[in-house]
Structures are given as structure tokens and as C-alpha cells.
Amino acid sequence: MLLITPTDWGSCADIRGIAGVCHDHGIPLIVDGAWGAHLPFHADLPPWGMDADADLVVTSVHKMGAAVEQSSVFHLQGDRVSPEVLKQREDLLGTTAPPHGPAGTHPAGRGAAPSRTHPQGRRRDAGAAPDG
User: Fold this and answer.
1) Residue 60, in any domain of the structure
2) CB of 54 within 8 A of CB of 29?
3) Between the chain's N and C termini, which has fewer beta carbons within 10 Å?
4) What is the 3 state secondary structure string of 43-100?
5) How many structural domains is the chain composed of?
6) Is residue 76 part of a domain?
7) Cα dist. 9→35, 64, 69 in Å?
8) What is the pLDDT along the chain (132 residues), one digit of tens a residue?
């Protein structure tokens, strides 16, 4: 089963309870924890999937972690998910989020940003030559 928790709004599911039901039926629990990279680092936050008996947690560390570029990390425990099968299907679980941070730091991206202060509706970097 694939469980998405937490959501991008911060809602968290009962991972431990869902894992128990899945495991009682021999089904692995895969958690898309894209927005939960911060959960294992504070005791007052909801439990992280790996601490709540999920078999596999996919974390997008560029969302709530410290990665600057697109970065997905697979956390695997137990024997319900084969590492070999995971390797074959990793493209299905990787991040689909565009890298807004790095793209926004590129001069071409900044120069194309709309602005009401530039005559042609484009912002000009401080060091750029004037148009015309």
C-alpha cells in the first residue's frame, strides 16, 4: 500500500495503525513522506514512517530537509520489500517536484521574472547593462 503522509498541508496519518493492518495481511507499507524529512528530529512531531513500522519511506529532502536540489532518499527496513525490486522500480518513487530553489538562483531565471519596474516588464539584474 502507498500512503502519502504528511501532506503538503501538514496532515499526518496513523502510520503505525495502517502498518499493522497492512502487515496483518502480508502487504508492505510504502510511505511517500516527501514533506516529512524533518519528522525524525524532534520528539514532539508525529512519528516518522521508519519509526512507525513502515517498510519503505521515500523522503524528498529538498522540501523539508537541507538539500538544495531535487533529492529523494529511500529508507528500507524489513523483508517485505526486496532491495532488488526497489532498484528496478526506483524511477516510480523518485521526486517529481521541479527544483525551484536552484532554478531561482540562475541569472537567466531571475532576468525572466516579471516586474512592474522595468519598461519591458522584465527585471534587470543590478550588474546588467541597460536595454537599448
Assistant:
1) yes
2) yes
3) C
4) CCCCCCHHHHCCCEEEEEHHHHCCCCCCCEEEEECCCCCCHHHHHHCHHHCCCCCCCH
5) 1
6) yes
7) 9, 12, 21
8) 999 999 988 899 999 999 999 999 999 999 999 888 888 888 899 999 999 999 999 888 767 666 666 777 889 999 999 999 988 887 776 656 655 555 555 555 445 444 444 445 444 444 444 554
Cell of 61: 529532502
User: Which CATH number covers residue 54?
Assistant: 3.40.640.10
Domain that holds residue 59: 2-98
Q: Is 39 helix (H, G, I), strand (E, B) or coil?
A: helix
Residue 109 lies in a domain: no
Q: Which residue matches cell numbers 519511506?
A: 57
Model pTM?
0.67
